[in-house]
Amino acid sequence: MPVALVQLRRSLLATLRTAGPHTGAAVYDLTAASALFALRGTIGRPPASVEKLYTTVALLTKLPQSTRLHTIVLGTGHLGPGGIWHGSLYLHGGGDPTFGDGTFNRIWEHGYGPTATQLAHQLSARGIREVTGAVIADESLFDSRRGGPATAFAPDIPDFGGQLTALAFDHGATGTGLTPPTFAAKQLAVTMQAAGIKAVASKVTAPTPRHARKLAVVSSPPLPVLVDLMNVPSDDLFAELLTKQLGVRFAHKGTIAAGAHVISSTLAEGYGLHPRIVDGSGLSRSDRSSPTEVVTLLRTVWRTPIGHVVSGSLPVVGVNGTTWRIGKGTAAQGQCIAKTGTLNYVTNLAGYCRARSGHMLTFAFFLDGPSNEQSIALLTRLVAALAKY
Question: How far apart (Å, rounded) are the C-alpha atoms in residues 76 and 74?
Answer without folding.
Answer: 7
